[in-house]
Write a structure and sequence with these properties.
- This protein has 18 helices and no strands.
- Helix 2 packs parallel to helix 8, helix 4 packs antiparallel against helix 16 and helix 12 packs antiparallel against helix 17.
- The chain is globular and about 70 Å long.
Length: 459
Amino acid sequence: MEKRTRRVKTRHIILAVMCLMYFISYIDRVNIAVAGPIIRQEMGLTSGQLGLVFSAFAYPYAVMQIVGGWLADKYGPKRVLTILSLIWGVATLATGFAGSVAMLVGLRFLLGIGEGGAFPTATRAFTYWMPVAERGFAQGITHSFARLGGAVTPPLVLAVVAMGGWRDAFLLLGVASLAWTVLYMCCFTNSPEQHKRITPEETAEIGYRKGDCDRAKHAATPWRKLIHRMWLVTVVDFCYGWLLWVYLTWLPSYLKESRGFDLKQLALFTALPLLAGVIGDTLGGVVSDKLYKATGRLRLARCSVLVVGMGGSLAFLLPMLSATDPIAAVMFLSASFFFLEITNPVLWTLPLDIAGKYAGTAGGMMNTGFGVAGMISPVAFGFLIESTGSYDVPFTISACLLGVGIVAALFIDTSKTVEADEDRERHVLMGGGEPAFAHAGQGVGLQRHPLRRPLRWKK
C-alpha cells in the first residue's frame, strides 16, 4: 500500500508530457523572430518580405482554433494532436532547408496549421484526465512552460546560430518536435480506461465514468449552444490577447525607442516581463483551484481570478505610461504582465468547465479571440505609433480593452453549461414539460463533482 501511495500518478505523467509540448511548440513559434535579422541579411529580404514571413503564421493559426478543437472532439485528441505535431515538426525541420521567400512563407503557413489546433486539442485531452479541482493548475503549468519557451528562445536560438548558423537551429528544433510526437504516442490515451498504467483508485479520483469517451465521439456538436455559452469567454480572451500580442511583438521596440535601452540592456529587460508571466500563469491556476476547493463555488473560483488578473494588469499599466524612470517602467510592465498572465489558465479552464466533452471545439472558439487579436493588435499598434509619434495612445487603448474584459468576465457563469442545456432539452422531450429540477430543490439533477456544493434551484 505504501508503494502505491508513492507511485507517480498517470495523469501527472501525461501532464508533464503536455508541458513539454507547450514548451517546444512555443519555441518553434517564436524562433523565426530571433533568426529573422540573420535570415534577412543572408537572403537579402526587404522589411516587407520579412514581415510577410512573420505574418504567414497568424492566419491559419486563427482558422485552425475551432477546426482543430472540433476534430479533437470527434476523433480524439491522440490522433489529432499526433497529426498536428507531425505537421509543425516537419514544417520547422524543413525551414532549415528554405531557400526563398515563398518557401519560408509556405512553411510558416504550415506551422500555423499545425500549432493552430494544438492548444484546443490539448485542452480537450484534459477533459477525461484532469479532475475539476486540478484543471486550473493543469492549464496554468502548461502555459507557464509556453511562456518559459518564449523566454529561453533568444539565448537558445542565438547559441545554436553562433555555433552552426540559423539553419541548424531549425533542424534541431524540428527533430525535437518529432521526438516529442513519438513520446506522446507512447504515453497518451484518449481516456483513463484505455491506459494500461491507470489504477481504479486514480480513475475514481479523476471522476471518469467508463464509456464517457466513446459516447462523446458519437455526440453531435451543439454549435448554437457552444456559441451561446462561450462568446463572453471569447470576448475576454480577445481583450487579454490584445495586450499579450503587444508584449510579444512591440516590447523590444518600446524599450529601445521610448525608454532608451541599448542592445545589451534590451535582452535582460525584455525577458523580465516574460519571466513574470511564467510565475503568473502557474499562480493563476493554483489560486483558482484553491478557491474552488475552499468554497465549492466554481464561478467564484474562475471569475474572481479573471477580474483580479485583468484589474491588476490595468492598475500597473496606467502608471507605466507616466513613469519617468526607465527601470520603473520595466517594473510596471513586468507587474502588469504578471497579472495579465494570471487570467490565462482560467481562460483555458473555462472550456472544460462549460463545454465538457465539447471542450476542444469550445477551446477553439475561445482562442479564436486571441487569434483575431493577433491579426489586429500588432498592426493597429504600429499604425497608432506611426500616426501619433508616441506609444501612449496605443497603450491607453490596450488599457481600455482590459476594462472591457473585466466587465465581460463578471457575466461569465460556469453553472450554465452545455451539458445542462442538453439535459434540460432531454427532459423536456421525454416528459413534455420542464424538468423536475427546474422547480424543486431535489430530484433529477446534473452530474456534479464531489467537491461542488449542491445546486440551489429557484422554485
